[in-house]
Amino acid sequence: MATAGAGQLLLLTLLCALPAAADPAGPSQQRAVLWYTHPAADWESEALPIGNGALGAMVMGGIDTDILQFNEKTLWTGGPGARAGYHWGIPVASKAGAVAGIVARIDREHGIEPTEVAAALGAPPQGYGDYQSFGALRIEYEAAPGAVDHYRRELDLDQAVAAVSYSLGDAHVRREYLVSHADGVLALRVSADQPGRIGLDVHVDLPPNRRSSVRAQGGTISVDGALEDNELRFAATVRIANEGGIREALADGGVRVRAANAVTLWLAAGTDHALRYPRYRGAAPAGAVRRRVADAAARGYAAVLARHVADYRALHARTDLRLADAGSPLPTDELRRAYGHGDAAADRALEALYFQYGRYLLISSSRGGTLPANLQGLWNQSATPPWNADYHLNINLQMNYWPAEADNLAETTAPLFDFIDALIPPGTVAARRMFAAPGWTAFLNTNAWGYAGPIAWPTAFWQPEAAAWLAQHYYEHYLYSLDPRFLRQRAWPVMRGAAQFWLATLHRDPDSGRLLVSPSYSPEHGPFTAGAAMSQQIVAALLEEVAALGARMGEPQLGARAAKAMQQLDRGLHVGQWGQLQEWQADLDRRDDDHRHVSQLYALFPGDAISPWSTPQLAQAARTTLDARGDATTGWSRAWKLNLWARLLDGDRAHRLLAGLLSESTLPNLFDTHPPFQIDGNLGAIAGMTEMLLQSQGGVIHVLPALPRAWPAGEVRGLRARGDAQLDIRWADGEASAVIIRTGHAGTLTLATPLLVDGQFTDVLAGTPVACDRAGGQCRFTARAGGVYLLRKVTGQAAARLH
Ligand code: FUC
User: Fold this and answer.
1) How many other C-beta atoms can be found within 10 angstroms of the C-beta atom of residue 217?
2) Ligand 1 in contact with 328 (CB < 6 A)?
3) Which of 242, 444, 466, 671 could form a disulfide with 260 if both were Cys (CB 3.0 to 4.6 A apart)?
């Protein structure tokens, strides 16, 4: 830009003003903080999670004794070396004949009971293992004279720092807790505004299922050991640094501090797990763990805090949701209890907080260099957690990552992609042994050790579409980023292997001649048949993409095979006798069925084969199905339905699902409860909130497609759209009033919003209007690389000035 004219300057001023502006209805903006007036009494429902993707802890904040239960993401029993033996769940001898037998039976009988198929094709899991608690830091505070008052426990989502504060006699005590990704350590700093007031004993408590030594020397507690089940080695170091006062190592492995001005605890932990088939073992952990603590302690708390906040904000602060007329003086547990009882401003405050909490949870449980977020994200206190706190591939792991791209946290997909890449070698063996097929596959569930076979749990074991579904996440990452290297080097190999598998195993239906998945099982529901809707929809999406990409990726033959299969493939989009979208090829759906899995609606969300714009009749059928299933259900299922209603452009109904989640399926610490606690509901829900505000599937960016009446005015910043675009949207009276689009790549974008009908649409850097045909509130325009575009409502005098 050589010179800026007056118009340009004005636009730039507007542009700068927009993100900083408070909500249109007045400055009721609140800080994004969860806060409580009491310590947590319960781990699952009240403790506050902190984490850096690999290392996490739950903050209870007890006054006399503070228990900081902590996890390291790779501490798993099971896998190679497990006492029970381990074969990745993959049969040693080929099962291809048994699978063919089931396929032939389904051809004849059309439906088989899951118990029979599980007996024929599944196997009891051997050496599957569980995600483990690492241990707990037990901090016992020295009794001090004076009453405790003004207690507050909080989690600041803008900084990713938890804190406890209270007055004790004439002193004010503050504890701050964080887990830094930048420095790989947990830090707890305890300070008081009066000298010499901090006295505490620190111990590390470990669960019994391991051999371990805990030793204290000077100010350091060293933990070394191995899990009894699989000899996985682990190490942790806690350094206790006191400012003033005295410190001594205790004979029982603890450390005591007395009369200090402040104390900082540093904790690092690790294992020798490595995400590499077949051994899954890497370097001994102790050296790296000790080094991380030494480096952080040398850096000092203020510097570590600053680096942590900068690292976290680089992700979290990109996106903000401000709802107008939102606010409440209530602590978070009371706010949640009061939710839906008539205070709309308080309700909106909780909804906006819940949105930013979901983004916080994803960042805190999913960073590069470790495993992806599991069923509980990162936080688990048990040796035998529900569903092993594993990776369920028939909705749950995928749901964890639904918000990653649109909510501007694409970096959080790094551990997911590393995990899936590492699943391909055992998944390739599984495809061969189970189906005599090329490519790779996975089934219902997997663990830290590349489990790739089917377990023998009749209603939950068969999901060979998992590989194709997971491949969609790679392709979506490309659609959002338009990064050609990622497409070629990461996405394509995964998509190719999944497509090769399906091209070899699709079955020609003897009745219709169509290509079907067989055996096929609609997640956790109904009989085994051929061609359940979800199976067909997932495979169709993958093969369609492979057909389109093959030539460009240098594999035209594979592309051509996929294209040919697509001509014969049933797409799983059938409307049944009561107007519903069928879950199976045969019209078996019952109107009174309220099953939590709505698998036949995959094509509506997360897929995009159904939409009210392009396939209105199918969208109507999806609506009929959703109405029949009803709203009341488990946590993650409500979150899925929230996304589905947003895709049906019904903002009020989507909001009703959000309201149900918050009032029925959310714990006082705002964890989603299935029940029990499962993080998929938190993460799926914020994906749905985002779908209410912005959608970009099918090549069109729709602004505020499902805005509920409950959010008449507000502002959202930093949402991402497919096509490498980023949007800020402000709205009032239920309509968009300003939209800023920042574009990464040069190319064509299509924007849809009624604001295009009479709004002013400007290429800000050029200072010129955007030329496009705006018929029907849509505009297809050519965006520049690094462009900035402003669409705004112009009325009265402002319009005259600008023209
Ligand atoms: C899916 C669900 C269950 C549970 C489990 C972890 O299989 O059907 O309800 O959420 O995952």
Assistant:
1) 10
2) no
3) 242
Instruction: Give the Cα separation of 709 and 599 in Å (integer).
Output: 29
Ligand 1 atom with the smallest distance to the CA of 597 is 8
Alpha carbon 329 to its chain's center: 29
Cis peptide before 39 (omega within 30 of 0): no
Q: What are phi and psi of 68, to 5 degrees?
A: -115, 85
Q: Which letter does DSSP use for residue 61 in this model?
A: -
At position 106, the amino acid (one-letter code) is I
Q: Residue 30: its pLDDT value, please?
A: 66
Question: Residue 394: CB within 6 Å of ligand 1?
Answer: yes
DSSP string, 178-245: EEETTTTEEEEEEEESSTT-EEEEEEEE--SSEEEEEEEETTEEEEEEEETTT--EEEEEEEEEEESS
What is the reported pLDDT for 509? 97
435 lines ligand 1 (CB under 6 A): no
Question: Which amino acid type is present at position 454?
Answer: P
Alpha-carbon distance values, 650 to 221, 531, 619, 706 (Å)? 56, 30, 12, 5
Q: Distance (Å, rounded) from C-alpha 660 to C-alpha 654?
A: 10
Q: How far, in Å, is the centroid of ligand 1 from the Cα of 462?
A: 13
pLDDT score for 579: 98
Choosing from 387, 444, 445 the residue with most ligand 1 atoms within 8 A of its CB, the one to mutate for a pocket test is 387
Token pair in block for residue 346? 């308080």
Distance of CA 787 to the CA centre of its chain: 29
Measured from the Cα of 387, ligand 1's closest atom is 6
Strands 787-792 and 171-180 come out as unpaired
Question: Residue 385 C-alpha to ligand 1 middle, in angstroms?
Answer: 13
The stretches in the chain having pLDDT less than 50 are 1-29, 800, 802-803
User: What is the rounded distance in angstroms from the CA atom of residue 156 to the CA atom of residue 164?
Assistant: 11
CB 682 within 8 A of CB 670: yes
For residue 753, the surrounding DSSP H or E stretch is none
Residue 375 alpha carbon, nearest atom of ligand 1:
6
Quote the CA–CA distance of 254 and 204 in Å, as a whole number: 7
CA distances from 577 to 300, 399, 611, 625 (A): 68, 31, 21, 12
Residue 184 CA, ligand 1 centroid: distance in Å: 32
Q: Read off the amino acid at residue 710.
A: A
Q: At what angle do helices 679-693 and 635-647 cross, to 10 degrees?
A: 10
Could you tell me the distance, in angstroms and rounded to a whole number, from the CA of residue 316 to the centre of ligand 1?
Answer: 29
Given a contact cutoff of 8 angstroms between Cβ atoms, the answer to whether 609 and 603 are in contact is yes
CA distances, 85 to each of 81, 126, 374, 393, 649 (Å): 7, 6, 23, 23, 50
Q: What are the helix (H) ranges across 586-678? A: 616-629, 635-647, 651-664
Would you say the C-alpha torsion 662, 664, 669, 673 has a positive or negative sign? negative
- Tokens for 172? 């004010």
Cα–ligand 1 centroid distance for 64 (angstroms): 38
- Answer whether 396 contacts ligand 1 (Cβ < 6 A): yes
Of the candidates 40, 55, 33, the one whose C-alpha atom is nearest the C-alpha of residue 380 is: 55
The token duo for 302 is 């203020």
Task: Tell me how far the alpha carbon of residue 798 lies from the centroid of ligand 1, in angstroms.
Answer: 54
3-class DSSP assignment, residue 782:
strand
pTM equals 0.96
Q: Which two tokens stand for residue 666?
A: 């959310």
Length of the chain equals 803
Of the candidates 671, 648, 321, 387, the residue with the CA atom closest to the CA atom of residue 524: 387
User: Distance, CA 401 to ligand 1 centroid (Å)?
Assistant: 16
Ligand 1 within 6 A of CB of 387 = yes
The Cα–Cα gap between 532 and 605 comes to 16
Q: Residue with structure tokens 């995009």?
A: 608
